[in-house]
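Researcher: Quick test of sequence recovery. Tokens follow.
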């Protein structure tokens, strides 16, 4: 029994080391939409804290953040939200990339800093922001009530190159309704399963988003 136990412990250690190596050789991307009814930055920060503890201090974690939304909200709240987000970058040793259009998100996934994806694959991708069943809405109701001028639609997902993602990459949308359509289109486009919600989600202050619709569930 002693030898069996030692073998089991050795296998567990090898799996941990393999996971750390996997993370070290890849990039984990957090996509954050602009603020409206919820603080998506807070939720992304909570998740990033978990990832840092899990993956270690040197794992490459990138935040893609919709900049215009936080510029606009800063004027309303009379505080420098851009500087606030930069403090999160510094605290968690993040690669912070600002964007304004959904096409820029696709460009980064395919060709970060012009370096391509041959060497550094995406090992994780999570979205924090508004969404409906067919798209991520980066500035929903930010300046125009119930309207959006920056998004990533499911019909654009075919522009994402399959080679971008590592085998077994973890992909999740924390927004509303993604699992009702967009998750399927994501899989067809990228070959990776995106966990998404059936129904609505609610962003919380001290925990990750939760399901709030009757019969709601997470699917991929």
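Model:
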């Amino acid at each position: 029994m002693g030898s069996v136990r030692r073998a089991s412990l050795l296998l567990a250690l090898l799996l941990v080391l393999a996971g750390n190596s996997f993370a070290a050789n890849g990039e984990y991307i957090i996509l954050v939409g602009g603020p409206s009814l919820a603080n998506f930055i807070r939720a992304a920060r909570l998740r990033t804290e978990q990832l840092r503890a899990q993956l270690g201090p040197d794992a490459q974690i990138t935040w893609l953040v919709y900049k215009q939304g936080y510029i606009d909200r800063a004027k309303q709240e009379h505080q420098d939200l851009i500087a606030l987000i930069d403090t999160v970058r510094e605290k968690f040793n993040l690669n912070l990339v600002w964007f304004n259009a959904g096409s820029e998100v696709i460009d980064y996934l395919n060709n970060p800093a012009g370096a391509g994806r041959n060497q550094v694959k995406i090992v994780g991708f999570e979205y924090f922001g508004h969404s409906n069943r067919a798209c991520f809405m980066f500035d929903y109701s930010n300046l125009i009530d119930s309207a959006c001028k920056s998004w990533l639609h499911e019909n654009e997902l075919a522009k994402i190159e399959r080679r971008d993602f590592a085998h077994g990459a973890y992909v999740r949308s924390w927004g509303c309704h993604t699992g009702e359509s967009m998750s399927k289109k994501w899989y067809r486009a990228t070959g990776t399963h995106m966990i998404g919600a059936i129904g609505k989600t609610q962003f919380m202050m001290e925990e990750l988003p939760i399901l709030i619709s009757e019969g709601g569930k997470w699917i991929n």
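The domain at 2-219 is CATH 3.40.50 (Rossmann fold).
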